[in-house]
Each structure stands twice: as structure tokens, then as C-alpha cells.
Write a structure and sequence with these properties.
seven-stranded mixed β-sheet; 26% strand; Fructose-1,6-Bisphosphatase, Chain A, domain 1; alpha+beta; D-Maltodextrin-Binding Protein, domain 2; metal-binding (chains A, B); Inositol_monophosphatase-like (chains A, B); five-stranded mixed β-sheet; 2 domains; homodimer
């Protein structure tokens, strides 16, 4: 597997998909709901996933595809090469704002993240990484994350996690909100991972993410020294929905041990 | 007072100030704290406010200035023409992210908002309005806000307001978080007002804002049919710090009556 050849191929494919998404704003977008009323999907999410699948099947036969919209393979293990794709991460933003969403893609070989891409479609900003080669924001190499502290940190998290929920003790989350410098919520896990990688926020936490939400971003975050795990501190399991945190390495352990109390 | 002449003057001054802010990223930024450790101010906030004051004093003598950094006039009433200025709204974002902050300016005559400006400095996006003339995003006229419902709304609010606080019953805020489609938090009141005006979010609520945070944005929001008030439903008082909400008119009253319980 020639990672650099794949990297060039993927960048070109992502830009083409981004162009199709931007063009879609001129037409009507069909919106449906999935698991619940606020879990949105559009015809564009589906078309973009299908575009990737057609291309991958033609140009990389033998590779498998794990996509949010379910048109890819039925993935039960991480053997071989798997493309983990969210064609539009932040569909609610796509529908309501026509911005602040991303194409998220991670390429894994036997469970190891080799390539990661987060494409902010409207701003034409591509965050990307090849394992061991550092992370980039467009053509600019991202610096390694610098040491910080809880009290100087900005944390990406949804306000929902400060309310009683089935995943963690919310009182501990409230302590975290009080102890950090500030919280932000942008509505796209992929973009929030890109912001962790570029140091705009110092951590991102979520109680419930799917493999395609975090597959690309995790590769990028780790290339700048960031840490990723579930709330137990275990390496993320890319076969199931789980809790997730990505953070600056100087606060990752402290957030887990002092502020996150899984139920 | 020729509003259209002032409008041209202000746009030019804001763009000049924005250029100075963007240029400041090349040098060192001095950061201090104000009322508390997370209330940040930099030398750039101060320099930009002073730039405005020099120009206004020269070109609009007789006008008064109410600025966040306190270099303007001691404002105890709303008589005459007052420029309400936040030179950098979202200073924490300015410091941590070098983006997602804005110059916020409202021009009030005898307490009536005549002109409003929110300038997203890094994206070079100017939201602006002349009272009675509609609101604009750069050169594009913003459409009137369309009817929506609580369950389809995205609300801008800080996660802090879902936690016990001295301003409102947080259980009611939690009900709001559960009933809406989603929440977002961008860390700049001015930008969140610009997002209400452009329909990217449907409401913005905060327990504690100052006149210069909301003066420009309120003019813009009202020009697209949006409603602004404090949590009692009263017109905002531009002499004091207060609670604040700006919202799509179809949900403003309902949020106030069903979800906001001031203490």
C-alpha cells in the first residue's frame, strides 16, 4: 500500500466531493430523519457516500468501506484496509447553516490509522495527516500541541452533557465547565477534532460517537501529539459507538481522572 | 445626522481597524485579565478602541463613545449620539484561536439604534444595518427570518447556563436544551447575534451581557424581523449589564414564557 499515492488520490477525490456539495446549495436538499427527529440525513449525504464507494470499488478493489449512511460494507472486524467515511459530518449545520460541516475520512490498515482527512467544505480547508508524517492544515504543517492547564483550556462539548444523562455523572462535567477557561460547541465532531489538532480548542469530549465520526480526526490529532481514547482511557474501538475524548496530552489524563465519571 | 454618510465612514473605519487586528498576529500580543481570570483583554483591544475614539473625536465631535475598554466617555444616559463599541468581542477566541471574534459597533441616537455593525475580522465578513433599510451580509441583503418552532431550532448558549447559576432556574434551561434541535456556542456574543440575523441559529441567550456586546447586533437582528429583549421581556437597557435574548420572532415569546425562569 503506497500511502503517498493514496494520499494524493484521496485529496483529489475529497475536493471533487466538496465541489459537488457546494454545488448542491443551488438545488433543493431533501431532508429525512434517522434514529430520532434530530438525527438528520439528506440526499447529499447519500450521494457523496455513493460517490466515494464507486470510486473506491473501482480504484481500490479489496478495500472495504465503513460509511455513516450504510452503503458500504458490513464491517464486523478491522482486518485489511478500511475507509471510514462520514460524507457530511455535522448534517444539522449543513441543513441549517450551509457551513460548519466536514467530510471526514480515515484509512485504517489492520486497525491502525494510516491516513486522516477532515475537509471543511465551505471554507475549502483541508486538515490531513499521514501516520508518522505530521499533520497539516492545507499546505501548512501544524505544530505539536504545547503544554497547557485545565484552567487555561477551552473545551469543545455539547451543553447536553452538563445535564443529567445516562453516560456520565453530570455533576463532574459541571465541575469541568467551571474549572476551564471556556467551552465551545460547533456541532461537528470532525471539525472539533480538527480544532483540537490545530490548538483552537484543547479538548473535545462526547458521550456518543460512531467510528466514522472520529476515524479521520484521531489520526490527525495524534500526529500533533494529542491523545485520543474513550472515557475509560482505552483506545477507541472502531467497530462500535462509544464515548470519546481527544485532548492536548497535558490535560487528557487529568480530565479523565478528575472530571469524567462514567456511569 | 446623515446616516448614509456615517455608514460609509464607519465601514471604512471598521475595515481599517480589522486590518490592524490581522496585522497584530505577526507581533506579540500582551494579555491581561480584568474582572476575573477568564475575562481577558489585550493591548490590541485597547489600541483599537483608542483608534476609534481618536477618529470619532476628530470627525464627529459632540458624539459620545461607550467602549468596553473604558477609554470613551462616562455614559450615564442615552441622550444624543452614542457609539457603543466592543473593539474585539470574543477576546478569548482572539487569544486562543486567532479567529471567531468581531468588532461590534452600534450607533444610537437618543436611545434608538440607528446603525449596527458586526465585523468578523478574519473572514472579512461584515454584517450591517441602517434602521429601516434592512440588514446585509457584506453586499447581500439578508432575508427576513422565516417561521420556525422550538423543536426545529438551534440555540446559541453557553453550557454554563445549564448549570446552577444565580440568574435563572437551570432546570428550565435544561428543558430548553432537550426540546430544541441543538445548541451551539461560539464564544462571541456579537457573532452569535450575526448568526441569528442570518438564520444560522434561531436564538441566542446569555445571562450577562454589556451594552457594547449587543448594541450593534440588536440593530441588525431587528432589521430581519428578529426580537431582542432581556429575560423579563423588556427592551434591553443600554446603560447596564443585563440578561439578553435575541430570537426568531416565532419562538422569542415561547422561550421567555416557557423556558426562562429568572431568579
Amino acid at each position: 500500500m503506497d500511502l503517498h499515492e493514496m494520499d494524493r488520490y484521496i485529496k483529489s477525490l475529497i475536493k471533487e466531493a466538496g465541489h459537488r456539495i457546494r454545488t448542491s446549495f443551488r438545488g433543493d436538499i431533501e431532508i429525512e430523519t434517522k434514529a430520532h427527529v434530530n438525527d438528520l440525513v439528506t440526499n447529499i449525504d447519500k450521494e457523496i457516500e455513493q460517490l466515494f464507494i464507486e470510486r473506491i470499488n473501482t480504484d481500490y478493489p479489496g478495500h472495504r468501506i465503513f460509511g455513516e449512511e450504510g452503503f458500504g460494507n458490513d464491517i464486523q472486524d478491522l482486518k485489511g484496509v478500511i475507509w471510514m467515511l462520514d460524507p457530511i459530518d455535522g448534517t444539522m449545520n449543513f441543513v441549517h447553516q450551509q457551513r460548519n460541516f466536514a467530510i471526514s475520512l480515515g484509512i485504517y490498515k489492520d486497525g491502525v490509522g494510516e491516513l486522516g482527512y477532515i475537509y471543511d467544505v465551505v471554507n475549502d480547508d483541508l486538515y490531513h495527516a499521514v501516520r508518522g508524517g505530521g499533520a497539516y492544515f492545507n499546505d501548512e504543517k501544524l505544530p505539536m500541541l504545547q503544554e497547557t492547564s485545565i484552567s487555561e483550556s477551552i473545551i469543545g462539548m455539547n451543553a447536553m452533557w452538563a445535564t443529567p444523562n445516562k453516560y456520565v455523572e453530570h455533576e463532574s462535567t459541571i465541575r469541568l465547565i467551571r474549572d476551564v477557561r471556556g467551552t465551545r460547541s460547533y456541532g461537528s465532531a470532525a471539525l472539533e477534532l480538527a480544532f483540537v489538532a490545530s490548538g483552537r480548542i484543547d479538548a473535545y469530549i462526547s458521550m456518543r460517537l460512531s467510528p466514522w465520526d472520529i476515524a479521520g480526526g484521531s489520526v490527525i490529532v495524534r500526529e500533533v501529539g494529542g491523545m485520543t481514547s474513550n472515557f475509560k482511557g482505552d483506545k477507541e474501538n472502531l467497530l462500535v459507538q462509544d464515548t470519546f475524548m481527544a485532548a492536548n496530552p497535558s490535560i487528557h489524563g487529568k480530565i479523565l481522572s478528575e472530571y469524567i465519571q462514567p456511569k
